[in-house]
Batch of 2 targets.
Target 1
Amino acid sequence: MVSPTSLVKRLLVGRPFRSDRLQHTLLPKRIALPVFASDALSSVAYAPDEILLTLSIAGAGAYLYSPWVTLAVAVVMVTVVASYRQNVHAYPSGGGDYEVATVNLGPRFGVAVASALLVDYMLTVAVSVSAGVGNLGSVVPFVAEHKIGIALVAVIVLTAMNLRGLRESGTAFAIPTYAFIVVIVGMILTGLIRVFVLGQDLQAPSATLRIAAEESHLTSFAFVFLLLRTFSSGCAALTGVEAISNGVPAFKTPKSKNAATTLLLLGSVAIVMLVGMIVLARATHLQYVEDPTTQIVGGPPGYVQKTVTTQLGETVFGNGSILLYVVGAVTALILFLAANTAFNGFPVLGSILAQDRYLPRQLHTRGDRLAFSNGIIFLAIAAMVLIVAFEAEVTRLIQLYIVGVFVSFTLSQAGMIRHWNRLLRTQRDPNRRRQMMRSRAINTFGMGLTGAVLIVVLITKFLLGAWIAIALMLIIFATMLAIRKHYDRVSAELEPTDERPVLPSRNHAVVLVSKVHLPTLRAIAYAQATRPDTLTAVTVNVDDKDTRRIQDEWERRQVPVQLTVVDSPYREITRPIIDFVKSVRRGSPRDVVTVFVPEYVVGRWWENLLHNQSALRIKGRLLFEPGVMVTSVPWQLRSSQDKDLDRFDRGLTRAPARGPRSRPVDGPPASSEPEREEAPS
């Protein structure tokens, strides 16, 4: 019979895969693009909003600078894409920025990059899901009223889909992602053709609005700072670009080549969409402000500002058209799916960190469906905590965003510079040297740009919430170093030495007795078979009447082992036994004490709540006593013998039925007297 937890697991996750089927879960380029690109593409969907609303602080005239800011963002994206194409060829194991920084800058820098990426992945899920719920809530009021609950459900659904394995989740996300690319690129091309080829005068819904500048008298320095802030906000379009370098092991062979090609496709599509949307926004005189209530002067009553994507869709396809609703639908959907990139990148990075002993080893192993299940679940829990803490408000979560990804960008490219410098010292081929020097120049330019963006982001967003992301990074950084220190200390303690282990002088056996029944008699028989130097049976006196009954039964059955009664005036079980074991061993430190604990083996989960609780407490406490060995002596009850373990473990067909049980040969029939619940068995 399948347990309830196993049944639920099979329904949500599916049947387990054999380890030799790992090759079948790897991704071809057509599936890898939507799996790893949804985060970057969703960032492009709201990056134009961030550029325009930041420029609106200086008034509508500042929109003239939006194409130049976008061009600068595109240059950074081209540089980052070019750099990461080199990363995936040089470091194809999936470590990405972490591996580059660790190998070239040192372990501490690698841990710093890893902590930044882990925080960024958590925020990616929280921001993307919250944004998707916000877009959906503008159409469906019920979602807006219950956005936190809907966001949590969305995270759970994404978790279940990714627990089923990469290929299945990739197929599920491929159609919506490709639909978003086709619809948005189609909208941009249609609008540009209508404006620049057909000469039509398209006007965005917000084109006639009068915008009041929040800061109308900016100095030259302040305006330059505003442009830098706009540039840093637009660089939100770069979030997610690094995911492919962290997910190279998920690609089909040749892994590096396929990952580099996918990265090039991602960068090309993202740049086309970002530049196209900004150019079309300028051509249609679209306006988007930070605070509509104060910046829009004399607007229509009850004016609600629509996103840049929605305004462009309405301008190109017309208000109320089916294609306008398609634009809104695919945009909202891609925001939900953007979280999938984190669900593919975080577990792989967590597995690498666990292998390097910076995270618990449980994150290194694959689950039933050959996905890193523990990492997926951990990411989901962290994202749900962020969603609840910030009430699924994108405006609050977005301030924490971007910091982590640009920390990893900057340190990664600094590491690549050292990588090329090291290779150039030994490389003598002129062609190869020219290639390396060109690559180093690209990385140097990229490090300068991403470093500048990081500084601007820290200055402009620190008090708005970026400090929370920095604090999380520091906490994770310190935690990973502490975990590594613990694993190193344990490894050093367990390292074998040249000295031969000293055999114990004597072995003292102690059998715990709660009642004279078959489990106790089996434990005594097994203890006698080990040939100990001394053998003692111990029972704890918590009730005089029960203790006398045990002594009478012990004498009546003529058990050939001395029964020792330990008094417990405060009705404790664990402490008197621990004290007795200590007293046995106190006389000779080289002696060992073996404690035999009779235990029931039950077949139903709820039966575990009714048995073995005292035994668990005693065993847990004895584990901390040096020179004490604990041996469990199981007694299988009927429910455990009827258990179909094959089906329980694998969820497969029922095993053949067992034959009739024979009576155990190591003891007479059990007494019908009730068992004491305080007993260790």
Target 2
Amino acid sequence: MLHTLDYVVIGVYLIVLLAICVRVTRSSPDVDELFLAGRTLGPAVIGFSLFASNISSTTLIGLPGAAWEHGISVANYEWMAGLVLVFTAFFVAPVFIRHRITTIPEMLEKRFDPRLRRYLSGTSLFLSIVLDTAGSLYAGALVLMLFIPGLSLGPTCAVMAVFAGLYTAAGGLRAVAYTDVIQAVVLLVGSAVLCLLVFGEFDYNWSRVVENVDPQHMSLIRPMDDPALPWLGTLIGLPILGFYYWTMNQYVAQRLLGARNVDAAARGAMLAAALKLLPLFLMVMPGAMAAALLPDLERADTVLPRLIIEYAPVGLTGLMVAGLMAAIMSSVDSTLNSASTLIIVDFVKPRKPDITQKQLALWGRYSTLTLMLLAAVWAPMIDKFPGLFAYLQQTFSYVVPPLVAAFAVGFCSRKVGKNAAFRGVVLGHVVSVALFAGSVTDQHQIHFTIVAGLLFVVTVLWIYLMHWLRPETLDAEQASTAALTPEDSLSPAVKGMAAVVVALTAIMVVAFW
């Protein structure tokens, strides 16, 4: 139960959030300002915003729950994200910024044709609303329902969607990014404090943790028959899922597109990569320790709220709830803004080339509010699935690998043309539908992360087969786009940061192997 002091803390957080939104929405933003913050974001804002936007339901709610149920191997998603961000900073982000694109699908049009742009954009819209936005609303409602008796799932999701949708529609990416900085700080402080409180239940003695928690719960690299994350899935599946999420996912990559220059984008990516090493200790470990402290929970998704209820004192509980709400709202505002960007830039603008910038911005606001309503309607449906983390990751595993394959082939090969890429992606999704049907009907037991790796390989082979059957000649723009070369202009500081992130990741994986 929340006390008066807890409500005061939450209220202060909401006031600060609204004050920031009011400040950045005094002027009416044009399309570039609404969707990319005028391409003026610096590295600190980019890094914290990347971290805060990601650290929503899949992290604060999903990670502790998965760790409670299966162990710390779920943290592999986090450190793998850091390595993907390092790769993106050196090879991918410079290409995006050099071409001054507004959406990631726009890049596929430059390399291939409008068909793949619309294909990726439509798929991204579906994932953003059904997975990211709706999942975040569901997680937030679940938390509030535990702390405030009498709330129901549907109306709570609707109220949260309206709040995030209104300030996102008003302020655009700048409001989203600036509030993300505040939210990231709240998330880190709240998570660190809760981690210390839970560790205190073991007298701050790591040996006692090891004695009381199942040894299998404390290992990152798991055997092939592990139901949560087999080692092969970590090796071939997580890089594919991570690449889509951090490079091709509009709501994440939009921060990089809004960078003032290549170096700012790279520094921001390095900061986010470093922050992605923290969830193992701040979110996953408390969940694993909760397996010994709270063994009789009915559902894994309630682990973090229960830890707060059991161990956080008055006042600090309010900070924790504010942190949880910060995570949820950060993800919701990010996905709404990016989904609106996809609609306006990839669908409306090509069909209405004479539309004014003011009209586009107005359409952007309307689309944000419409998407907000759709996500609010779907969010309660997630309660019918076995768990939030599984709902998110399994869907990603079947949908995104063919798209990643097209991106990889297109930007690493100077020969593959538009028809081969499009046909290969479609055939890849045909295979993914068949594999998904097989998993639902128990025709196969292949882990979804391994499925992701297999789908990537199958789609690459399809694309090259289509190219071999009907070779095509690339035009000048397509040929110039087909090159992911390391960015030579990055500063020595960025390269040093990348080396540190990779080294720390290696040490962490070996320590918890």
